[in-house]
Amino acid sequence: MSDRRFLSHINRDYTVRDVNQADTLTRVLERLFKAFVSPVRPPTPIVRPDLDNTEPITCSICGLFFTLSVQFAGERCIDPGHWQAAGIITVKDYYIMAKIKAETANEQLSRRNKNAVDSIAFTS
């Protein structure tokens, strides 16, 4: 008889422990869901500057223009550090950084090709 009572206490203890663990797990999952899945405030949208603007701003460091517009080719500030210093872009905006760096590579390549063509024209 005492064995039965002992076993019933063991079962009751395990049941209570399982309920407490399940309740704790539920609370933890609710907190995670609230924190990551459904934030209290909506996320702020990414606002990217207009890099192809027709009236660009002059860089205070090098004097060239903050734009990727084709009409200002050769007169563009192509150093991403200058763009960051002016507050136009942030370090974390990797898309714009990559776009400016790609434009830098294109600009330098076109300058090299133009210089090569000019030197060939003078030697002929």
Question: Could you write a compact summary of the structure shown?
Answer:
The protein contains three helices and two strands, in the order αββαα.
Task: Write up what this structure looks like.
- A hairpin with a 6-residue loop joins strand 1 and strand 2 (65-66).
- The relative contact order is 0.08.
- The chain folds into 2 domains: 1-43; 57-123, no CATH class.
- The model has no long low-confidence stretch (mean pLDDT 71).
- Helices cover 58% and strands 3% of the residues.
- It has helices at residues 2-37, 80-85, 94-123; strands at 57-58, 65-66.
- The protein is elongated.
Using brief descriptors, characterize the structure shown:
elongated; 124 residues; 2 domains; single chain; 2 strands; mainly alpha; 3% strand
